[in-house]
Design a protein that fits this description.
about 325 residues, 4-stranded antiparallel sheet
């Protein structure tokens, strides 16, 4: 069975039904046990992955390598138009699912890599988004990273992923709506104003660089959650100028180092919310990066309500991160 | 710091900031290690919990015991009115958080208890919801259960929880809206029609009892997700007649036994979506119970999008559950 996107009758949530994902090898398990495998991401084992979509630089001696996910959640085939009725809608799972191998070094964290390597990696993220946007069938490109079994990583060698979707996903759509409503009311960008305010207030500020600020969100969903905002208003991460990209590498690496010191190298995810591929440039949207440390577990309450329970106030988290 | 309900500027999601939760003892950890503790839920250790709100029957020899959560996410104190501005809204975390000790026996699962004990437990759920509704300050009462560390349980002795909230949570609000829209279009209940259709179709049907049916949802978010629907239209679980309650105990216990056989006793949550305490009786709402097995891990993609990736098609899951 090829992957499908499905929407049920009771909620507006979509699920990807992707049987091929079940076959992926698991090196690190959430219960802590690790199964030794030959790392498919280390140099010399390139034959264990599908052929590279791009290498930087091309060929042997690569520093970052992009491959199709061998166990994809979505595929660039089929018809993305949903069909069905009020009791369920489905479409072919049309999209892309790529793995970005962050480094030839078998490191477990970005913080084990020099800032220059992180800069190269971020520029590869931008490359992939620009490339996927050109495909024309895709509505949204998401870059994310899973570190540690509790954050959904199945392999230890530091890597990132890109999933491109045929529709704008719910959480991004909600942010677009909220940002547009604020822009209509004030003629200004919500995130620009938020950044100003949080930097002046200071209680939730983690760090500042020339072009970026990192803060713990007022309604943090989990301990040590961080939001990285560019100071310069821009809807698209993938159009980041070179000097800002180098500065971002430093700011992101510093924020992750602080997290690892404050919370004893926790499992975490990060993700980039950039503007959708499709539609006009949304002038009210401001791209950002979210870091989600996974020290707490979602329980029945969160699944039932959409409300999260966070035992660490973000003001305390920011103080700990500033000092870490 | 007392618990707070907070809403940030970018999304409409609420978070509960509850520092007291950080102090709770953890018997079972997600990484698989267990810390032996004297079980506070076993008979003879009643002094280790706050005094009981109710015991069934009252006093020694109880079969089900209800206590305030010692590490509550919300408290019945303060002002539930939100205040703030576009960059963040907060209110006191006014609500209730109770623990229901399912049985005097130190069992790990409901399936280790006889059906009659499960029936008593379900009637206690209904009692607590009716009692919390009478408080008048609360908008919603949620009954849920966490089993296993991966599902957020910190203690092994089988127990359930009730959290009552000062506002109707997002996921329930969405279901109310969807059900009302369907009712306006067709003059019928969405869940009644869904049940008819799924029973006739049969591909996602797990089991049927006199008053209930259990199915795997068309857009299942995870392997072996189950939806239990009452055949008789009713908005409120807590008004379940006695004969239906006994039948529900049997149906729920059977469904959980099938899950434990098919998926090797996984961690799971279940939760009951009943109508809100406040407002008129929503004639279009149909209460239901969801079972959420936790064999997969949320990763960066799910946190970024609100879209889940499920490697097991619900039609295959239902076939496995039927045969288990």
């Amino acid at each position: 069975m090829n992957p499908e996107l499905r929407q049920g009758p009771l909620t507006e949530q979509w699920a990807i039904i992707a049987p091929e994902r079940a076959a992926r090898p698991i090196e690190v398990h959430p219960d802590g046990h690790a199964v030794p495998i030959v790392c498919p991401f280390c140099p010399g084992h390139e034959a264990q992955t599908p052929p590279a979509l791009r290498s930087y630089p091309d060929g042997p001696g690569w520093r970052v390598r992009v491959v199709p996910n061998k166990y994809p959640a979505l595929r660039l085939a089929g018809n993305p138009a949903p069909h069905g009725d009020e009791f369920g809608t489905r479409s072919d799972g049309v999209g892309a699912h790529e793995v970005i191998i962050d480094s030839p070094v078998h490191a477990h964290s970005l913080t084990d890599l020099p800032a220059e390597q992180v800069r190269l990696l971020l520029s590869v993220y931008a490359d992939r988004l620009r490339e996927l946007r050109r495909d024309g069938r895709l509505a949204y490109g998401l870059v994310f990273k899973n570190v540690g079994a509790a954050a959904g990583a199945s392999l230890e060698h530091t890597h990132s992923q890109v999933i491109a979707l045929p529709r704008v996903p719910a959480f991004v759509r909600q942010e677009l709506i909220t940002a547009r409503a604020y822009h209509r009311r004030h003629g200004r960008c919500l995130c620009c104003d938020l950044l100003d305010r949080e930097v002046r207030d200071g209680r939730r500020l983690v760090l500042e660089s020339r072009h970026f600020a990192v803060l713990t969100p007022f309604a943090s969903r989990m301990p040590y959650e961080m939001l990285l905002l560019p100071r310069r208003h821009a809807a698209r991460f993938e159009e980041l100028p070179e000097d800002e990209c180098a500065d971002l590498a430093g700011a992101l690496r510093s924020a992750l180092l602080k997290l690892e010191r404050a919370a004893d190298r926790p499992a975490y995810n990060y993700l980039i919310h950039t503007a959708p591929f499709t539609g006009p440039e949304p002038e009210s949207f401001h791209w950002h990066l979210e870091v989600l440390p996974r020290t707490t577990t979602l329980a029945g309450f969160e699944w039932a309500t959409g409300v999260t329970i966070n035992p660490l106030p973000p003001e305390q988290a920011a103080a700990q991160l500033r000092e870490a």
